[in-house]
Amino acid sequence: RLDTFEALENEQKLLFVFLFFYLFLFFFHQTMGELQKENPDSRVIRPQPGLCVKTLSEPDKQKVFVNVCQSNAVPAPPQLSREELVELLQSDDPSGYRVPMSLGEPHTETDNSSQGCTAYDVVINQEFFQTCQKDPLFQQFIILVSVEGLENKYNLELSRDWKVLKNRKFLGSLSEQNIRTKSRPVIEELHTQYVPQFSLLVEPPAGQPQYLTAEIHLPGVSSCASLVLDVGEDRLVLTARPNLFHLDICHHLVIDQERSTAKPKRPPLTLKDPNVHL
């Protein structure tokens, strides 16, 4: 009789656990259904792991991991050949080529040294991810785009001295993400680019010029990582991405491009070009 009583008690426990789990799943699906109704232009996806990038936050030098994930639910970007990618990276405004991606919320993880760190999940189209894996240039490009996307969304500054982990495709645990299902307009209004205030100073002021110093004021630019600078013999082109400032200066002097230097100051950016010739 005692064995029979214990068996019945165990069956009741199992039945209770089953009912609890069933009710949990029921209310979970009900809640997710209500969320879908509230936001019909989005859907929940579970991405697949891709590659894991280790970098540092600036200026506090804290470890940050970027999980570049893949999913067919994310639209693919326009087709791009290797030659077109090279031209894009050398252009004045590479932000004209947009890669659809989903940027997840930061989550706290533990690295191999049992130290706390922050990880972000970025999801791109699966086919495009596979293309990027076949070419190191494409891989570096998608990492750059992912890092810049996180910087813009979360107001971060991340080091460009990153490392792709060989034996790890993901740090942490894969979580679901909510992505848009309604496409944005193909043609979007671009933000107006403004010409920043600048000044040119020839040194010395009299006699044969030796240096040409340009001071450029860039309010709202918090990181040099968003600047694209092109120095020619008689021309200076500076763009602050994304679409904040654009400066194109032509002058009558000839400068030494290889020895030109640029350094940020508060408030202006200073560019110094040596060996100026009339």
TrEMBL record:
| Bilayer-crossing regions | 12-28
- InterPro entries cross-referenced by the UniProt entry: PIH1/Kintoun_subfamily (IPR050734), PIH1_N (IPR012981), PIH1D1/2/3_CS-like (IPR041442)
Residue span, PIH1D1/2/3 CS-like domain: 207-263
Q: What sequence ranges are listed for the domain PIH1 N-terminal?
A: 33-185
Give the signal peptide as a residue range, or say none if absent: none
Q: Return the GO cellular component terms, semicolon-separated.
A: cytoplasm; R2TP complex; ribonucleoprotein complex
Keywords on record = Membrane, Transmembrane, Transmembrane helix
Q: Which GO terms describe its biological process?
A: box C/D snoRNP assembly; rRNA processing
Q: What is this protein's function?
A: Involved in the assembly of C/D box small nucleolar ribonucleoprotein (snoRNP) particles. Recruits the SWI/SNF complex to the core promoter of rRNA genes and enhances pre-rRNA transcription. Mediates interaction of TELO2 with the R2TP complex which is necessary for the stability of MTOR and SMG1. Positively regulates the assembly and activity of the mTORC1 complex.
In which family does this protein belong, per the annotation?
Answer: Belongs to the PIH1 family.
Record's protein name: PIH1 domain-containing protein 1
Species assigned in the record: Sphaeramia orbicularis (orbiculate cardinalfish)
